[in-house]
Write a structure and sequence with these properties.
128 residues; alpha+beta; 5 helices; 4 strands; 59% helix
Length: 128
């Protein structure tokens, strides 16, 4: 699990505090997180799956790969190769930055926040 302190943005793994997860309404979460009132814990494996699904990564990367290969085979190498590279790297970039992307989506969209809380991808705790 990735633990993020909203005041500093630093990630650490110590669970020395005995605060438990609480339900926070989205508007309170949206206003309180930048002020450092909450600590957010993100499950990285679940975040990867959710962000890939939410951003429709497979549906974007497969056509990019296919069109890039076809363009490369038909002689448009300088157009096709970047499309192939983007299609291949998209999964790795999403995997590496999924917790940050999820936090951004949760701050800006109430539906995403509710789903992340419901599926236990995101956990919010009050900072002491």
């Amino acid at each position: 699990m990735t633990e993020t302190n909203s005041a500093t943005g630093a990630q650490n793994g110590d669970n020395s505090e005995s605060t438990s997860a609480v339900y926070v309404p989205h508007q309170e979460f949206k206003t309180g997180l930048p002020m450092g009132r909450f600590r957010v814990i993100v499950n990285p494996e679940r975040a990867q799956k959710y962000v890939k699904h939410r951003l429709f990564v497979v549906g974007i990367s497969l056509p990019l790969l296919g069109i890039g290969v076809v363009l490369s085979l038909y002689g448009y190498l300088w157009v096709g190769l970047p499309m192939i590279a983007v299609g291949m790297l998209m999964h790795r970039v999403i995997k590496a930055h999924a917790p940050k992307i999820l936090l951004h989506l949760a701050l800006n969209d109430a539906k995403t926040y509710e789903e992340a809380m419901e599926y236990e991808i995101l956990e919010v705790r009050y900072t002491p």
